[in-house]
Design a protein that fits this description.
Blueprint (H helix, E strand, L loop, with lengths): L5 H23 L2 E3 L13 E8 L2 E8 L10 E5 L8 H7 L3 E3 L11 E3 L9 E5 L9 E2 L9 H18 L8 E6 L6 H13 L8 E7 L5 H14 L5 H10 L12 H14 L19 E2 L2 E2 L1 E3 L6 E3 L13 H10 L2 H6 L29 H7 L5 E7 L7 H10 L3 E11 L2 E11 L2 E8 L6 H4 L1 H12 L5
Parallel strand pairs: 4-7, 4-9, 9-10, 10-15, 15-18
Antiparallel strand pairs: 1-2, 2-3, 3-7, 3-8, 5-6, 11-12, 13-14, 16-17, 17-18
Helix pairs in contact: 3-4, 4-10, 5-11, 6-7
GO molecular function: acyltransferase activity, transferring groups other than amino-acyl groups; serine-type carboxypeptidase activity
Organism: Carya illinoinensis (Pecan)
Protein name: Serine carboxypeptidase-like 18
């Protein structure tokens, strides 16, 4: 007796094919991570890790499903700056549901704990190590590591398209592109790629709703000029020296030529005034080296590393000489541990020495975009929802520079400058702009440095939660 025949056979074959396709896709669509070394018990959220092949690169990602309503909550793509800083920064220091326990660290794998003010409470977040050479992303060809601002944007766009093709259940969720610091350069270019791809009819069509940029590098001249103005406003430079530099440099402190001798001398004096200031947070100590020392009787362990040079503190509650960079040091220990890599499903031998920020990448990186203002101007005609924010104690990307380039977009103010609150306290200041369906919210986060979410995670969560669900700050 025949098992099937005619149309029935075709239907059976089709069903078998669909099932095989499903299992093949599942094998390449990331693996559920239920527990990680250093975390007590099973993870209370869904974490997936995996790779997406883009050209000769294998892009590593962490995906955390929304802890709220994953079927309807937005999808946020997030990658960090540098260039060359891992998205692990976002996951554990900034916007993710994990944090290191810095108290009484005594060696071994650092402990992590569930952090309640995670952006994953209200959105699914796709963290990607971009560009290739960052974090756990790797390539099989040396030439593939020759990347640039524009290549990074193209790489992130292709990664996103492929990931969504493998996870079609998220294609209907509203999509936001998120980036911070130096990735503020490539972030708007990624958004432009998505819009161009949609308009060209490429599949899958991405349900782009907007983008989010934290302390974004945008225009080199505006950013460099703003550092001088900010230093004066914060009392780091005297009125007399600032006025002298303003006159001798004609208000432009970027790309000084030898013919501008007095301007050059004035800027040298300004740099002398701020050279010992922590640029990431002007109120915190500057920790640029690592060596075992005694400070007020407490012994500090030291961890040498190529990128930052860090002091390891035996207790984050000891404020005699606490370094923010202590938490960074723990990431090297954690991510280079074999058991951690096994839990995260890292391909063995793909990345020998994980770095939080791979500064060797800069030797092969081409900085081919000094300004992306024209991209922002173009995007301001596309009816997007946009959130831009700064910490107000950040001397790397000062808030006044961000406010200046936003003004260049010539948008209409719909809600003028005012404070925004968390639990009845001023969390920062905000202003909202609009133009033909394009909505841009700019916010400062009071007391925060670079990047703001590292210093004010709770306030940053409330800012994001209100924005992503269309409530005013």
């Amino acid at each position: 007796m025949a098992l099937v025949s005619g149309n029935s056979a075709n239907r059976v074959c089709l069903h078998v094919f669909i099932l095989l396709l499903f299992f093949v896709k599942a094998a390449f669509s990331g693996t559920l991570v239920t527990s990680i070394p250093g975390f007590d018990g099973d993870l209370p959220f869904k974490l997936y890790t995996g790779y997406v092949t883009v050209g000769e690169a294998d892009m590593f990602y962490y995906f955390i499903e929304s802890e709220g309503k994953p079927k309807s909550d937005p999808l946020l793509l997030w990658y960090s700056g540098g260039p060359g800083c891992s998205a692990f920064n976002g996951l554990i220091y900034q916007i993710g549901p994990l944090a290191f326990n810095l108290t009484d660290y005594e060696g071994g794998i650092p402990n992590t704990y569930y952090y309640p003010y995670s952006w994953t409470r209200t959105a699914s977040i796709l963290f990607v190590d971009a560009p290739v050479g960052t974090g756990f992303s790797y390539a099989t060809s040396a030439d593939a590591y020759d990347v640039s601002d524009t290549k990074t944007a193209a790489q992130v766009y292709e990664f996103l398209k492929k990931w969504l093709s493998e996870h079609p259940q998220y294609l209907l969720n509203q999509l936001f592109v998120g980036a911070d610091s130096y990735s503020g350069v490539s972030g708007p270019v990624v958004v432009k790629h998505i819009i161009d791809g949609n308009e060209a009819g490429l599949v899958p069509r991405l349900n782009l709703k907007g983008y989010i940029l934290g302390c974004p590098k945008t225009d080199a001249t505006i950013n460099d000029n703003s550092k001088i103005i900010y230093s004066h406003r914060m009392g780091l430079v005297s009125d007399e020296l600032y006025e002298a530099a303003k006159e001798s440099c004609n208000g432009n402190y970027d790309d000084i030529t030898k013919s501008q001798a007095q301007c050059y001398e004035d800027l040298k004096l300004i740099q002398h005034c701020i050279k010992d200031i922590n640029k990431n947070h002007i109120l915190e100590p500057k920790c640029t080296w690592a060596s075992p020392k005694h400070y007020g009787g407490s012994v500090r362990r030291a961890l040498e590393e190529d990128s930052d040079g860090l002091i390891l503190s035996s207790s984050d509650t000891d404020q005699e000489f606490y370094c923010h960079t202590f938490g960074y040091a723990l990431s090297y220990i954690w991510a280079n541990d074999r058991s951690v890599r096994k839990a995260l499903n890292i391909l063995e031998g793909s990345v020998q020495d994980w770095k939080r920020c791979n500064k060797t990448l800069s030797s092969s990186y081409t900085y081919d975009l000094t300004s992306v203002l024209e991209y922002h101007k173009n995007l301001s005609t596309k009816g997007l929802q946009v959130l831009i924010y700064n910490g107000d104690h950040d001397l790397v990307i000062p808030n006044i520079g961000t406010q200046e380039w936003i003004k260049v977009l010539n948008l209409t103010i719909v809600n003028d400058w005012h404070s925004w609150l968390v639990d009845g306290q001023v969390a920062g200041y905000t202003i909202k702009y609009s133009s033909n369906g394009y909505r841009l919210t700019y916010a400062t986060i009071k007391g925060a440095g670079h990047s703001p979410q590292e210093y004010k995670r709770r306030e940053s969560f409330h800012m994001f939660d209100r924005f992503i669900h269309y409530f005013p700050l």
